[in-house]
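Marked as duplicate of an earlier ticket. Keeping the data here for the record.
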Amino acid sequence: MFDDADCTYEEAKPILDKFQEIGLKPFGKDWRKEMDMHPLFMDDVPQEVIDGELDRKKWPVLASHLDIMYEDDDDPVGSAQSYKEDGNKEYVKKTKEGYYKAIISYSEGLSKDCKDKELDSQLYCNRAAAQFCIGNYRRATEDCEKAMALNPSYLKAVNRAIECQLKLGRTAEVLKWIERGLAIDGGNKELLIAKDKTQKRLKEEQRDERRRTAAEKKRRNEERDLLAAINSRHLKIFLPSDEEGSEDQRTLDSLSVGNKKRVFISEDGVLTWPVKLIYPEHKTSDFIEQFREDTTLGEHLGIMFPPHGESPPWDKEGTYTLPNLTALYDGTEGKVELNLDDPLLILLQKHNVIISAGTPTFEIHCKSKQAGS
């Protein structure tokens, strides 16, 4: 209270003492907490009030405030009706504060246990409307259920529950509530139209769910087969030591790092890898998206660097042709020269190639430049 004021708490204390002398209880040093618990100053309604219960010991000022407004405990029906009317006044303000206050009033009305089923069902339904407006869709639905338990033909409660389930995206529940509404009023045009639309939407969702389930099953089967193929070939995959999860999951994660295209098994059962070729002399590289394990580096390089074909822009001397190329693998024991006529699978197995980021990587050098260096 005094943080932004022109005087300090100590300076204002004499005035506060005067308040106490005449029987007024001012806010103390913990004024923010006291104000938050006062019905005239609270910004948000306590969660237990939103849930439909008021702890009178914890919130004595709020409870007293409500008791003063509705003192006629000898007439619980009249008192509950007054709470309902007060809640309606707050609700129509269409403000967050108004909705919170409406919830308090409707809850207090219900606490009167007036034994009037119609009135109590209205209080539940109205509280559901206020809960809906502040986004408490599940609580609102619960209140609609309670309203229907007291008044099974309460169509207004059905409509509010439908709105809640729509917000929650629970199409099957929407359809159930529509059916409950039609059990009350079988010729209701709005409900009949809503039923037709909801049934179509539910069929679409069920179809999409089946597709997702099938796609997920296919993905898992493909991953299982891929792991089995890699393990049966005794290939080495780099696995970061700081990653969590099973070895299979870490392997799959490693195969996917940095790749738009991950290794896969072709229809004829051949592993097909993305392969990176590095040209150190020119500080550039190529990326082969689909390199079958039964094909050779020589075959790919022959297509990329034909003897009498056009050279890439960076090979200005035209020295990069298949007869003039050599390939190296930079492994843990240094660089190893590769046989260009060996299939990719043999290269990976023979030289214990560690596949990092899901991509076998090789260096391509020009023999004439190596000789001259």
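See parent ticket for discussion. Strands lie at 236-237, 264-265, 271-279, 284-292, 325-331, 334-338, 354-355, 361-366.
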